[in-house]
Design a protein that fits this description.
Blueprint lengths: L8 E6 L14 H15 L4 E6 L7 H6 L4 H25 L4 E5 L8 E2 L2 H9 L3 E5 L9 H11 L4 E6 L4 E2 L11 E2 L1 E2 L1 H7 L6 H9 L4 E5 L5 H6 L6 E3 L1
Parallel strand pairs: 1-2, 1-6, 2-5, 3-4, 3-5, 6-10, 9-11
Antiparallel strand pairs: 7-8, 10-11
Helix pairs in contact: 1-3, 5-7, 6-7
């Protein structure tokens, strides 16, 4: 079946916000299960999958820094939050019968394998979903940048950024219901217009390596499957 796919190996980037409990912080089990089912459904098509998940539902490094915590310490705390989410997603995927592995940029051997590029690629080639936690392992870099970097390293065909909205708009569609949605953009437009696709470092990395970014609604029906099959979903940046 994978021969029919437009993108055979992808890196899915999802924010920790996608797991946030509606009543506050932490992990919403129902959202975790929904995300796990969506990824499992796509994995059964034969696609090769890496996942980078943020930690914003637990702690954001820049927010903690604004409240007085040392910025470097705050960023490391945010990286640890991504590991918590990665372990939760691993459990959710395994409940769906999908073999997974968590690799982290920060050494914690009792919980996960250290991230080693060649080893990550081998796991993906063996059909495992590899969840890449701990960001880049360095402060001052977002999980968007980690997603772009890891996608390039594992030789992914595209970065899929799952969000709560169905693409990229000229303005926030929540504040302006008449805001124009873009079906496609080039990297320079994203950078020059300051569009909220991924942070500038991540977009620049993708541009330099000709790596497409697809921004889409993760909660839409079978959206990941549609993207892999080449259907027009969300906004593509290329």
């Amino acid at each position: 079946m994978s021969d029919d796919l437009r993108y055979k190996r992808v890196l899915l980037k999802v924010s920790g916000e996608m797991l946030r409990h509606p009543d506050g912080e932490g992990i919403c089990v129902e959202r975790l299960q929904s995300m796990s089912r969506a990824i499992a459904g796509v994995k059964r098509l034969g696609a090769e999958f890496g996942v980078v998940i943020g930690g914003g539902n637990i702690l954001r490094g820049n927010t903690a820094s604004d409240k007085g915590i040392d910025r470097v310490s705050a960023d490391y705390m945010g990286m640890l939050a991504t590991v918590i989410n990665a372990l939760a997603l691993q459990s959710g995927l395994e409940n769906e019968g999908i073999e997974t592995l968590v690799m982290t940029a920060i050494s914690m051997e009792q919980l996960a394998e250290p991230y080693i590029r060649r080893r990550a690629i081998r796991h993906i080639e063996k059909g495992r979903v590899v969840i890449l936690a701990g960001g880049t392992g360095n402060p001052y870099f977002s999980t968007d940048t980690a997603a772009a970097l890891r996608a390039i390293e594992i030789q992914a065909d595209a970065v899929l950024k799952g969000t709560k909205v169905d693409g990229v708009y000229e303005e926030d569609p929540v504040n302006n219901p008449n805001a124009k949605k873009f079906d496609s953009l080039n990297y320079i437009d994203v950078l020059s217009k300051g569009l909220r696709v991924m942070d500038a470092t991540a977009v620049s990395l993708c541009m330099e390596n000709s790596l497409p970014i697809v921004v889409f609604n993760l909660n839409g029906d079978n959206n990941i499957q549609k993207i892999l099959r080449g259907e027009s979903v969300g906004t593509i940046v290329s």
